[in-house]
């Protein structure tokens, strides 16, 4: 093989690649958020959760494979896979957080109030009046748009980290000892 025939591809920036794949993933997760808040869904159906995990798996897999191909010889350690996957999840979570805040604060500000009513209705069926006062105060905090958005951010990062743990097992390619 002649060296003229080989194409040398300079690896792209780690941060640029994680941001790109995180943006892709975040946009799809944001679309789910738009659907959930737009349709006033309080009990999320199983298929939406399954779709969200499919998004995590597909985009983390695609992002890590893309990054691995750009590295020298296509080798990447388990730790590097994990680092890429977690950072990709953080970028996706930022996009998801922004979509949540825009939807819940500006487009559908009534979502938080209806969520609070939904939670209180469920609480009234399960606890007595004495405990309901305390539950009312905590429900106001836990159903606020900002708390729900921050919870979505943390949940996205944790879910992405978990999926990265598994995906990285299959995508790591250690450099052979003989090289």
TrEMBL record:
Coiled coil region boundaries: none
Pfam families documented for this protein: DUF4199
Name listed for the protein in its UniProt record: DUF4199 domain-containing protein
Keywords annotated in UniProt: Membrane, Transmembrane, Transmembrane helix
Transmembrane as UniProt keyword: yes
Tree of life domain: Bacteria
UniProt KW Acyltransferase keyword: no
InterPro entries noted in UniProt: DUF4199 (IPR025250)
Bilayer-spanning residue ranges: 21-40, 46-65, 86-107, 146-171
